[in-house]
Design brief:
The protein is built from 16 helices and 15 strands. The chain has helices at 41-59, 87-95, 99-116, 132-144, 159-165, 176-181, 225-235, 249-264, 295-300, 312-320, 332-353, 368-377, 382-400, 408-425, 437-455, 459-471, and strands at 6-9, 14-17, 25-30, 63-68, 148-151, 154-157, 198-203, 219-221, 239-245, 269-275, 278-280, 283-284, 328-330, 474-479, 482-487. It binds one RNA strand of 74 nucleotides through helix 1, helix 6, helix 8, strand 12 and helix 11.
Length: 489
RNA sequence: GGUCGGUUGUCCGAGUGGCUAGGAAUCGGUCUGCAAAACCGGGAACGGCGGUUCGAAUCCGCCACCGACCUCCA
C-alpha cells in the first residue's frame, strides 16, 4: 500500500506520487483561521480535508508533524478603510474587549467546533503574535538581500525585483506583466515602489491597538509573513505539504513562496494542496460575503436557512461525500441525505458485528479493502471509497437477511476494513447518545408498557403512546424483538 | 477585462474513449395488528452545436450559462 499515494500538486497542476523528503517523516503545514468571529461551515472544509490527509498519512505509517497556525494578528480590513484598523482591533472595539480576549474567545470556539467534528489536534498550533521576533528577523534578511525596502516606517517586498530573478506567479499561473496591464492603480499606495509589492511590516496608525516595537517603528507584521516564518521554524527550510483553501493560492501562497525563496534561495514547499470551497446557492460561503452558517448554528439548527439541526458527524460525512477539490454545495436536502447515509453506514457496521459466520462465503468481499485504498491513493477520493463501503453494506445486509453467507475470515476482514476506513481514516464516530439518562429511563418504562399492551392486542393504548411520543419529536421504531427510539426533532 | 475551473438523473455527487459509481428521494416488494423504521429490488443522466472515432458523458473546436481568483477570506 505504501508509497502509492498520489496528490494533486497545485504547483505542477498534476497528480504526483507523494514521496516525502525524509521518510518516514512528513511535514505538513495548513493555513488555519483568523480568529475574529465564529467559525462557519467553510472553515470545516479544510479542517476535515486535511484531517483526513493527516489520518491517512499516519495510517500509511508516516510520522507526521502537522502544523496549523492561528492567525491572531488581524490584517487590514481593506486598503481604503480610512481608519486602517485591523479585524481583531475592530472586533475588540465593537465588543469592548482586549484584542487578546477576542482571539481567545474565538479560538476556543474554533477548537470546540473542531473537537465536535472529530478532527485530530495538530502537532503544533503556532500563533502569529508568538513569532513577532522571528518575523522581524526574516524581514531583516529580506532587506539585507535587497528584496525588501523600508518606506515611511513600513517594509515592503519588492515583487518586480523578485520576478526578475525568480518567477512571481509560479503557483497561481499569473504573469506579473499581464497583471500590471490588467489592473488599475489603487489610491493610497504611494509608499510602495511597485504596484504589486506587499507589506512585510506595516506602520501602526495612532489608533491601532495591536502593535509591536521594531527598528522601523511601532507596527505589526504583514499579511503573508507569519506562515513563511512559522512553517520554516517548525518544519524546516523545505517541507513536504502545504495546505489551505483554494482562495489562498493568490495572493497569500504566492507571496509566501516569494518571501521564502527570496530569503532562503530555494522554494519552501514540495506539494501544494488546496481544498475547494463550500458554496451556498452556487456562491462561495464566506464571512466577508455574509452568507455563512456557523458551526454552532448547524449543530443546533438555529438559523433561518436550516430546516433542522445537523450533527457534527453529518457535516463530516457530507464533506467526505465530495472530493476535496470539488466545490460542495450546501442545502438542507444534501445535508439530510448525508445524515441518512451516515446512519445507514453505521447501522451496517453494528449489523456486521453480530453476523453469524458460515463455513464458506457465497459473495466475494476480498477486493473491497483494496478498492478503498486505491480510491484514497487517487488524490483522496473519499466519495469513491465510500461507494465501495456501501457495496459492502449491501452485502452485510444480505447476509444478515440470510440471503448470502460469509465465512468467519471474511467477516473479520470486513470488520477490519470498516474500522480502518470509517473510524481511523474518515474520522467518523457514532454520535453521542442523547445523554439524558432520566429521559432514557422514562422512555424505557413507557415503551415496555407499550410492548405489554401490544402483547395484549390493546392497539389503542400502544398507538396512543406512539403517537404522543411522535408529537413530542420522539420516533418509536419497532423491531423484530423489541424496540428502539430516536429523537428526531 | 485577465487567469483558472465547472455544467452529470428529482437532489447531492463520482467517473472519464466501449463495462451498474454511491448516497438521498421516488416507485415496487419483504417484514408488521396498522404505521414508522429496517431490508431487498427496479426505473431514471451526462449544457447546446459541430468534429475525431467502429464507438464519446469521456478527446478536439465553437457557443451558452455558472463559479473562484485578480482586495481580507478556508
Amino acid at each position: 500500500m505504501k508509497n502509492a499515494l498520489y496528490l494533486y500538486n497545485t504547483l505542477t497542476r498534476k497528480k504526483e506520487l507523494f514521496e516525502p523528503l525524509a521518510p518516514p517523516f512528513v511535514g505538513m503545514y495548513v493555513c488555519g483561521p483568523t480568529v475574529y468571529s465564529e467559525s462557519h461551515l467553510g472553515h470545516a472544509r479544510p479542517a476535515v480535508a486535511f484531517d483526513v490527509l493527516y489520518r491517512y498519512l499516519m495510517h500509511l505509517g508516516y510520522k507526521v508533524r502537522y502544523v496549523r497556525n492561528i492567525t491572531d494578528v488581524g490584517h487590514l480590513e481593506n486598503e481604503v478603510d480610512e481608519t486602517g484598523e485591523d479585524k481583531i482591533s475592530h472586533r475588540a472595539r465593537q465588543e469592548h474587549l482586549e484584542p487578546m480576549e477576542v482571539v481567545q474567545k474565538y479560538m476556543n470556539s474554533f477548537h470546540r467546533g473542531m473537537e465536535k467534528l472529530n478532527t485530530l489536534e495538530p502537532s503544533i498550533e503556532p500563533r502569529a503574535t508568538g513569532h513577532i521576533i522571528e518575523q522581524q528577523q526574516m524581514i531583516d534578511k529580506l532587506i539585507t538581500s535587497g528584496y525588501a525596502y523600508v518606506s515611511n516606517g513600513s517594509v515592503y517586498f519588492d515583487v518586480e525585483k523578485y520576478d526578475k530573478n525568480h518567477f512571481y506567479g509560479i503557483l497561481s499561473g499569473r504573469v506579473l506583466e499581464e497583471m500590471k496591464a490588467n489592473s488599475r492603480v489603487l489610491e493610497g499606495q504611494e509608499e510602495k515602489h511597485g504596484q504589486f509589492d506587499f507589506a512585510l511590516w506595516k506602520k501602526a496608525s495612532p489608533g491601532h491597538i495591536m502593535r509591536w516595537p521594531s527598528q522601523w517603528g511601532e507596527g505589526f507584521p504583514g499579511w503573508h509573513l507569519e506562515c513563511s516564518v512559522m512553517s520554516t521554524r517548525y518544519l524546516g527550510e523545505v517541507f513536504d505539504i502545504h495546505g489551505g483553501g483554494m482562495d489562498l493560492i493568490f495572493p497569500h501562497h504566492e507571496c509566501e513562496i516569494a518571501q521564502s525563496t527570496a530569503a532562503m534561495g530555494h522554494a519552501p514547499v514540495r506539494y501544494w494542496v488546496h481544498n475547494n470551497m463550500v458554496t451556498i446557492n452556487g456562491q462561495k460561503m464566506a464571512r466577508s460575503l455574509g452568507n455563512f452558517i456557523t458551526l454552532d448554528e448547524l449543530f443546533t439548527g438555529n438559523h433561518k436557512l436550516l430546516m433542522q439541526a445537523y450533527s457534527p458527524m453529518t457535516i463530516r460525512f457530507f464533506m467526505l461525500q465530495a472530493q476535496y477539490r470539488s466545490t460542495l454545495d450546501f442545502s438542507n436536502e444534501a445535508l439530510l441525505a448525508a445524515s441518512l447515509g451516515l446512519q445507514k453506514l453505521l447501522a451496517a457496521e453494528r449489523t456486521l458485528a453480530n453476523l453469524k459466520p458460515d463455513s464458506t462465503s457465497t459473495v466475494d468481499v476480498t477486493g473491497i479493502a483494496k478498492k478503498c485504498y486505491d480510491a484514497m491513493n487517487d488524490d483522496l477520493n473519499t466519495p469513491i471509497a465510500l461507494a465501495h463501503l456501501f457495496d459492502a453494506v449491501r452485502i452485510i445486509n444480505l447476509v444478515s437477511d440470510g440471503k448470502e453467507k460469509l465465512s468467519a475470515d471474511d467477516i473479520r476482514s470486513l470488520t477490519e476494513t470498516f474500522r480502518t476506513f470509517i473510524h481511523d481514516i474518515f474520522g467518523l464516530r457514532a454520535e453521542e447518545e442523547s445523554g439524558n439518562e432520566k429521559l432514557a429511563g422514562v422512555l424505557s418504562l413507557l415503551l415496555d408498557m407499550r410492548q405489554e399492551a401490544k402483547a395484549r392486542k390493546e392497539w389503542s393504548v400502544s398507538d396512543r403512546i406512539r403517537d404522543r411520543l411522535s408529537e413530542l419529536g420522539i420516533t418509536v421504531k419497532d423491531r423484530k424483538d423489541g424496540y428502539d427510539w430516536e429523537i428526531t426533532s
